[in-house]
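User: Reviewer 2 asked us to show a designed sequence for the structure in our supplementary figure. I'm pasting the structure tokens here. Could you produce the per-position amino acids so we can include them in the response letter?
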């Protein structure tokens, strides 16, 4: 037998062995799956569970519940199946969560509204030109104000095509691009596209499309929000937060942020979803179901920090300004690691009633100075006995010196008096309105973060202990514990890691 024939024979034998092993592996996997299905079938239909609590895997996946068709699994079976699903199809679950929010979240937190605002393109422009939402604004002149993102310099000229109810013909008018101030000289910026309304129009448009010419293809379709018509008078307090990104999944910090602000008197939260993690996504869904949170999809086709600043945060802040206008009396513009804390009152509501007595007709917003509570500083000894690791109770050492107003400060605004919102201050008020600087004795911004310039040099700055948050310690701990307990099985918080639950506790 020649060497070549021996080689071919050996190769054939090797190929057959590999093929045989593959078939054996396939049948082994198939047998395992069939066995698992049989066990699951027996558990569901033949094994009784003494624990009366029911848990549905369909709820955990966020699917609509149908009590006539849904199979409700016993808790121990559901938990095991949830663990298998979490381990095997985490990517698919993330897709489901993102599709859920992209498809069904509107500005009221209601489900099933196909008219939810989202980023849409304007075709026919030289550069990217995207539009998000539209608002009727008659405070100075009648116009439709569109939240957009476009090239910072020499943005394409566009037009507004109005669509009316009751069968009136559409109308096209030239638009004006108004650059929103803060852009860091990046390629793209947030914009207002201003669409003037003439008295000859039959009514306020129902929708508007931004186009490049009268005969251009319609590639966007924005609902015109008319809050002034829909709300009799603004009341209460809301919070606006810039786009949630980097798969944000700080479960305990997120719940702490919501619950502490609720204790302070906040009634509603408006968030923008770029990317979120599974735990926070599930908690958002529960808050939405309770009517205290709205989450808007925020898939902006521009590279953050390279093409546009921080996921287009200035478009989000100004969208939230107009979204809350006439609906809420006061609106906080803050981040998840920030809290505007009253230091002489028991709530934001009480504090704002006090400061509003000074020049009530001239004030358009209140500025609160920033003080850092650096995370590198030691945790408060009193926090060691607490059942949860809450950042506002752990970190009670703060920088002694406050930043001046307009530097790191944050605002509470009266939306109908503001034209353009910035990150740390208001860029433009209506004529006759102005900023009121609130003294730190009354209240200031508690900002919990690491040293802002990297390293640990910040911990050498002059500091003092500030336990003001302990005024609400019992309420806060109880509220967070309640949320974790109520939603643990619905959201399956601790499926990924057995140590995850322990890490939340002391």
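Assistant: Here is a per-position design you can include in the supplement:
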């Amino acid at each position: 037998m020649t060497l070549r024939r021996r080689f071919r024979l050996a190769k054939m034998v090797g190929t057959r062995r590999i093929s045989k092993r593959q078939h054996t592996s396939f049948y082994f996997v198939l047998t395992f799956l069939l066995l698992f299905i049989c066990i699951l079938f027996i558990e569901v239909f033949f094994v009784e569970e003494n624990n009366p609590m029911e848990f549905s895997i369909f709820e955990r996946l966020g699917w609509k519940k149908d009590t006539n068709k849904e199979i409700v699994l016993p808790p121990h079976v559901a938990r095991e199946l949830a663990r298998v699903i979490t381990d095997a199809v985490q990517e698919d679950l993330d897709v489901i969560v993102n599709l859920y929010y992209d498809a069904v979240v509107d500005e009221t937190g209601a489900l099933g509204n196909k008219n939810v605002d989202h980023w849409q393109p304007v075709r026919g422009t030289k550069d990217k030109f995207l539009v998000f939402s539209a608002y009727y604004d008659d405070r100075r002149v009648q116009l439709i104000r569109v939240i957009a993102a476009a090239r910072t310099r020499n943005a394409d000229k566009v037009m507004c095509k109005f669509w009316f109810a009751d069968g009136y013909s559409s109308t096209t008018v030239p638009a004006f691009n108004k650059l929103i101030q803060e852009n860091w000289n990046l390629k793209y910026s947030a914009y207002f596209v201003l669409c003037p309304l003439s008295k000859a129009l039959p009514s306020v448009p129902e929708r508007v499309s931004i186009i490049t010419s009268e005969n251009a293809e319609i590639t966007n379709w924005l609902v015109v929000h008319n809050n002034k018509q829909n709300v009799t008078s603004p009341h209460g307090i809301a919070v606006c937060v810039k786009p949630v990104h980097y798969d944000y999944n700080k479960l305990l910090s997120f719940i702490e942020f919501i619950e502490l602000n609720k204790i302070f008197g906040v009634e509603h939260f408006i968030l923008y979803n770029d990317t979120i993690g599974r735990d926070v996504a599930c908690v958002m869904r529960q808050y939405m179901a309770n009517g205290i949170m709205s989450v808007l999809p925020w898939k902006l086709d521009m590279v953050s920090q390279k093409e546009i600043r921080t996921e287009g945060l200035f478009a989000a802040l100004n969208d939230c300004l107009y979204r809350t206008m006439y609906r809420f009396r006061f609106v906080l513009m803050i981040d998840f690691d920030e809290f505007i804390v009253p230091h002489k009152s028991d709530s934001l509501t009480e504090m704002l009633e006090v400061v509003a007595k000074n020049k009530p007709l001239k004030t358009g917003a209140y500025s609160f100075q920033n003080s850092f509570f650096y995370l590198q500083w030691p945790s408060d000894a009193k926090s060691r006995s607490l059942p949860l690791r809450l950042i506002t109770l752990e970190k009670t050492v703060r920088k002694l010196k406050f930043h001046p107003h307009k530097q790191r400060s944050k605002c509470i605004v009266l939306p109908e008096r503001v034209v353009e919102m910035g990150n740390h201050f208001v860029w433009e008020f209506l004529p006759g309105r102005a900023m009121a600087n609130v003294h730190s004795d009354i209240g200031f911004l508690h900002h919990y973060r690491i040293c802002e310039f990297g390293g640990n040099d910040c911990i050498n700055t002059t500091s003092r202990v500030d336990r003001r948050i302990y005024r609400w310690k019992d309420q806060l701990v109880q509220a967070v514990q309640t949320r974790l307990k109520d939603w643990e099985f619905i959201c399956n918080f601790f499926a990924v890691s057995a140590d995850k639950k322990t890490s939340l506790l002391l």
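For the response letter, you might also mention the following. The longest strand covers residues 143-151. The radius of gyration is 28 Å.
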